[in-house]
Amino acid sequence: MQRLGEKVRTLRKRRRMTLKELALGLGFTSHSYVSEIETGKKNPTTEMIINLADLFGVSVDLLVRDELDLE
User: Fold this and answer.
1) 20 to 30 A from 69, CA-CA: which of 3, 4, 8, 18?
2) How far is Cα 36 from Cα 3, in angstroms, rounded to an integer?
């Protein structure tokens, strides 16, 4: 799960979303928690990982397994 933050950042940028837009899409009013996930300072909860996968339309496996790369 070390690469999860990198994957989230890549998926967000591919969709041309700001941190604020992603945070709002996940139900947060501030983008600081999402930023900390992207930089690896915080580990997201299982629920957050599921929400991220749903939002980006990818599998949870793709997000959490370091050996799987984004296409």
Assistant:
1) 18
2) 13
Check: CB of residue 67 under 8 Å from CB of residue 41: no
Of 54, 45, 49, the closest CA to residue 64 belongs to 49
The CATH number for 19's domain is: 1.10.260.40
- Share the mean pLDDT of the chain: 93
Q: Name the DSSP letter for residue 71.
A: -
Digit-coded pLDDT (tens) for 38-59: 999 999 999 999 999 999 999 9
Residue 70 domain-assigned (yes or no) = no
Tell whether 51 is covered by a domain. Answer: yes
Sole residue written with tokens 């599921």: 50
